[in-house]
Amino acid sequence: MNEFTGYKELGLVNSRDLFAKAVSGGYAIPAYNFNNLEQLQAIVMACVETASPVILQVSKGARSYANQTLLRHLAAGAVEYAAELGCEIPIVLHLDHGDSFELCKDCIETGFSSVMIDGSHLSYDDNVALTRRVVEYAHQYDVTVEGELGVLAGIEDDVHAAEHTYTEPDQVEDFVGKTGVDSLAIAIGTSHGAFKFKPGEEHLIRLDILREIEKRIPGFPIVLHGASSVPQELIQMINAHGGKLKDAVGIAEDQLREAARSAVCKINIDSDGRLAMTAAIRKVLDEKPEEFDPRKYLGPARESLKELYKHKIVNVLGSNGKA
Ligand code: G3H
Ligand code: 13P
Ligand code: ZN
């Protein structure tokens, strides 16, 4: 690790204490993906204004889009920015959907305080072995690790899974015990992206499977991916200003709220932010075709994102006031 001693030097924290408090307090920590400055500003402003802890998520795609050095400095800057705004909130920098030991190792060496190793597409034994390897490495640096069991439908790690493979409750205790992970992502009917249910399909996630999983590993931190709600007013706004999003639908907020009250302590939201930004940008460009200053459309997009993130924290996750 040369001179750099890791994420603590950047003022970041790992997820361990945050999850312990979230599980016992019956709320979930927001895990918001970011790829650029405006998204990060909106996340920090929303979390400061609601006094919420936050997990800043960086995908492999975000790292190559925005440059991993810049993203790390942005995350470190977020700690100072939050203090400047008046509230020192706990901030985790987390790798979303790490797909190899090498990627996780690289992130740990360059300032991430938490990593996900997603071996959900591997055989059970290979998933256990890969996850165990990442945990052994990460824990030497006090970096926390999220594993995944079960496969979400939709797009995950560039793999298109047409059908869900729900997490098998009978496997979770063995997986957690053998790997030593700090949290577990499960598949209970959520999926990535803005098209989570087919037309005519019932919009329900399997909270019954969640309850079964909780019985096997009581109090263990559970993570929900693919948890965007795809607000229909954003879809209408996008389509009213030239967009073409048909049959976009997400997870109902009351189901997420119920999950957050239980052992679900991290809820991943990316697509809703994409929709909020797109809607705001389309509106400005449609209504003011003469506009060409990026601040004039990225500013409203940032404001809309901030309101969305605050709404999630207060009305869905319940993490307001927990910083
Ligand atoms: O789970 C996927 C996240 O929404 C990140 O998406 O890989 O396109 O950055 P991305
Ligand atoms: P959404 O696509 O539902 O926002 O899920 C994001 C996610 O799970 C990131 O890992
Ligand atoms: Zn995900």
Question: Can you give me a brief rundown of this structure?
Answer:
By secondary structure, this protein is α/β, with parallel strands linked by helices.
Distinctive features:
TIM Barrel, binds glyceraldehyde-3-phosphate, 323 residues, 8-stranded parallel β-barrel, alpha/beta, binds zinc ion, two-stranded antiparallel sheet, single chain, binds 1,3-dihydroxyacetonephosphate
Ends distance: 30 Å
Nearest-integer average pLDDT: 95
CATH superfamily annotation: Aldolase class I
Strand-pairing-aware structural class: alpha/beta
Strand share of the residues? 5-15%
Number of helices: 12
- Counted beta strands: 10
According to CATH, what is the class? Alpha Beta
| Largest sheet composition | 8 strands, parallel, barrel
Strand order of the biggest β-sheet: 1-2-3-4-5-8-9-10
CATH topology-level fold name: TIM Barrel
Helices and strands, in order, run as HEHEHHEHEHEEEHEHEHHEHH
Write down the domain tally: 1
Over all CA atoms, what is the radius of gyration?
19 Å
**Shape by Cα distribution:** globular
Distinct small molecules: glyceraldehyde-3-phosphate, 1,3-dihydroxyacetonephosphate, zinc ion
